[in-house]
Amino acid sequence: MKILVTGGAGFIGGALIRKLLQNTSYKIFNLDKLSYASDLVSINQINSSSDINRYEFLNVDLADQSKTQDAVEYSKPDKIIHLAAESHVDRSIDSPSLFIQSNILGTFNLLESAKIHWEKSKKDIIDFLFHHVSTDEVFGSLGSTGQFNEDTKYDPRSPYSASKASSDHLVRSYFHTYELPILITNCSNNYGPWQFPEKLIPLVIMKAISNEYIPIYGNGKNIRDWLFVDDHVDALLQIWDRGVIGETYCIGGESERSNKFIVEYICEALNKKLNNKKSFKELIKFVKDRPGHDHRYSINPNKIKNQIKWKPKLTFEEGIDRTIDWYLNNQAWCKRVLLDAGYSGERIGLQKE
Ligand code: NAD
Ligand code: TDX
User: Does 24 reside within a domain?
Assistant: First the structure.
């Protein structure tokens, strides 16, 4: 079995490839353009101790149609799992065009290449699959009640979520029009080791350790539904076994927390772990809200629980504890990736340009 993973140098793609290397015999092709958010250290650590021929990195930008097609033709995958995307909402506010290029045009180029490859090799590949990894943000913003499910109407409200919604529509159109065997998953907020420290949880940990102020956007009452990254990866793998072609599955952790709760929880945990005299909570600062800030996300995971028999292994408390410990033990990595990316934790997403 040959699998093409796009975005494998990113946070979730990296976790997926590590799992595939450790638990399967797939030949893995990792297609990534290597952006500011990419890092291959976590994969190389595992790959060097496993069968080196099972893994190959392809440095390709999906916005480049002919290189994308070459990569698909070269790898001849049985399965494509598409995670590559610009993924940070704040950056989509400052630079939306990058999101259109990677998330919409990139997905289109990959779909076209997949279709050509699948049509050519239908006799050799029995169970071809194009699995598109998407987000709950495509469904928009909830009030204090209600949940997203597979039938929720799309209502994206940031350039990031609009670009992901667009890519979901394109993928679905290739199923209906060309019968390309696809699956779509829409997952809630992930957290865990190796996440670039621009997203809330790693940013808060890094800010606290560096004794810098910790920014909470608006009043901190916005709510996200948190899922440990390895639980997301488990869901993706289980959907390959038990999912139905053409279907969508929502993946969520049933762990809704407000941003204020998350930040205070991390501060308390760090107070205990580091025995700090001054509470890290003193670093918290409420700052100008994110433009178009979605209030609440919440996934109803009944379909994936009942049909795929998946549920998260870790509670939020277990996952966040592991994550905090990982960042405490890997500060050198954080400093290095921030430096390489030319980002030092400053506020972005206020339409500065
Ligand atoms: P990430 O930003 O950590 O990694 C994305 C990777 O994609 C990077 O290595 C980047 O270089 C690569 N990439 C971007 N544009 C590319 C292009 N044009 N060509 C080739 N490679 C490109 O993102 P992540 O958090 O790992 O998210 C992965 C996927 O999961 C994304 O599609 C995202 O929308 C989705 N998702 C993320 C979350 C979350 O909480 N992080 C939740 C639900 C869904
Ligand atoms: O410094 C901050 N302060 C703050 O209050 C940052 C970076 C964020 N926030 C708030 C904004 C959100 O309400 O925290 C919440 C989480 O923010 P992000 O980590 O930027 O994630 P979010 O915008 O919810 O999007 C994430 O989840 C869905 C991922 O980045 C997406 O890729 C995924 O699709």
Answer: yes
- Ligand 1 pocket, residue 133 CB under 6 Å: yes
The answer to whether position 59 is within a domain reads yes
In a domain, 310, yes or no: yes
Q: What is the pLDDT of residues 227-276, one digit of tens each?
A: 999 999 999 999 999 999 999 999 999 999 999 999 999 999 999 999 98
Cα–Cα distance list, 178 to 114, 118, 170, 290, 301 (Å): 11, 11, 11, 39, 29
pTM equals: 0.98
SS (H, E, C) 37-69: CCCCHHHHHHHCCCCHHHEEEEECCCCCHHHHH
Closest atom of ligand 2 relative to the 214 alpha carbon: 1
- The enclosing domain of 56 has a CATH number of 3.40.50.720
Does the beta carbon of 135 sit less than 6 angstroms from any atom of ligand 2? yes
Spell out the alpha helix ranges (H) of 179-258. 200-209, 229-242
Q: What pLDDT, on the 0 to 100 scale, is given for residue 17?
A: 97
Total number of domains in the chain: 1
168-173: Cβ within 8 A, 24+ apart = 168/132, 168/134, 168/138, 170/104, 170/107, 170/108, 170/111, 171/82, 171/107, 171/111, 171/130, 171/132
Tens-place pLDDT, residues 139-198: 999 999 999 999 999 999 999 999 999 999 999 999 999 999 999 999 999 999 999 999
Lowest-confidence range among 46-50, 166-170, 241-245, 310-314? 46-50
In a domain, 302, yes or no: yes
Residue 242 belongs to what domain range? 2-192+228-254+295-314
Distance 348 CA to ligand 2 centre (A): 12
Q: Which residue minimizes the CA distance to atom 27 of ligand 2?
A: 189
Arithmetic mean of pLDDT, 29-34: 98
Distance of CA 253 to the CA centre of its chain: 14
Summarize the confidence of residues 119-144 as an average pLDDT: 95
pLDDT at position 99: 98
